[in-house]
Design brief:
globular; mainly beta; Jelly Rolls
Length: 111
């Protein structure tokens, strides 16, 4: 068994449609240690985040952050910290407006 500290999501700009930003590999399990959303615009935006098991779908059952407001020029730390993502599971997210919010996540992958 190997444990690797890793940037799970190196940095992406959220779109307004649900998108997968991280997938645990076929031989990996991940533990999210920190995930942040930074609003780089002059307008507030809402973000919604899901941890979806392999073969599952984003729904109220897999939702972690629900329309959390990120005020312009500020960062928001997600409620996802400490959650385990099993093989093939994903982190999916979207924002209320495209191009306003950046997402970054760090954690541990266990293979």
């Amino acid at each position: 068994m190997a444990i690797e500290n890793k940037r799970l999501i190196p940095g992406s700009v959220l779109g307004s449609t649900l998108t997968t930003y991280y997938t645990a590999g076929d031989k990996a399990r991940a533990v999210v240690q920190r995930m942040s959303f930074t609003n780089v615009s002059g307008t507030s935006a809402d973000v919604t985040t899901y941890i979806v098991p392999s073969g599952g779908v984003a729904s109220s059952a897999t939702e972690i952050d629900s329309a959390e407001t990120v005020i312009f020029g500020r960062s928001l730390f997600s409620n996802v910290e400490g959650h385990v993502i099993d093989k093939g599971g994903t982190i999916q997210a979207f924002a209320s407006t495209t191009g306003l919010v950046n997402i970054v996540a760090s954690g541990v992958e266990i293979t």
